[in-house]
Amino acid sequence: MTFTRFIDLSGPEIERFGADTVAVLPVGAIEQHGPHLPVATDHYMAEAVAEGAARLAGESCDITLLPGLAYTKSDEHAWSAGTLWLTARTLLSVVDDIGRSLAAGPVRRLAFLNAHGGNSALLGVALRELRTRHGLRTFLLHASLPADQGGASPATELGMGVHGGLKETSAMLHLRPDLVDMSQARRAVPEHLTAYEHIGFGKPVSFGWTSDDFATGTGTGVVGDPTGATPELGRKLVDASIAAAAAALRECARFRPDRPVSS
Description:
Elements: E1 3-5, H1 11-15, E2 22-27, H2 41-57, E3 63-65, H3 88-103, E4 109-114, H4 120-134, E5 137-142, H5 166-175, H6 231-254
Parallel strand pairs: 1-3, 2-3, 2-4, 4-5
């Protein structure tokens, strides 16, 4: 059972991967995160959780960590300087090319470790495309499931902490405190959305949005409340994400939908 970094290996070493080796691809983003966080927040989170989980899961199965994707689908933040994004078509093509390249060798399992909510729907489409086109078993893991996709959001954010809020800010205070400026942190929760019964983050009807749509906090790019963030909370959140992702990777290594689970 091993953990390896794919880019540190030679071609012949990669040829020796088994069919159950899981290749883990961190998927982040480069996009505005308000005035208090760096544009690489999602990239740092994806890399940290993917490597931590891969190392932990590598104690009991074979895991290889791919170089992460930093530039992804971030057009909901395209209005802001610092956001570097790909179209959905481009990103889907990039992911397909990576899968095709992996499938030319012995790798048959590919897990995306995603840390940007704007990628989730597209990566969900990519799972089946890669399965049908290249024969890969494919999986989508989240560093932290955002509130608009069923994840938890602190009560102070009214279920709307989807970008640059308490959890992301705390995680960055733990991972890269040198890049966080808490003097610029401001609450920006669109509380008026609670008046809608059916439409909203985590409600039955989702809606298309950009991060400058909301009256509250216009201009900050934040949708959430980062003011209570602490490095201690960040450490707990990151550690929990790593543990959950490692457990999922262990299942990815043995997942077979065509037969019962071995005892």
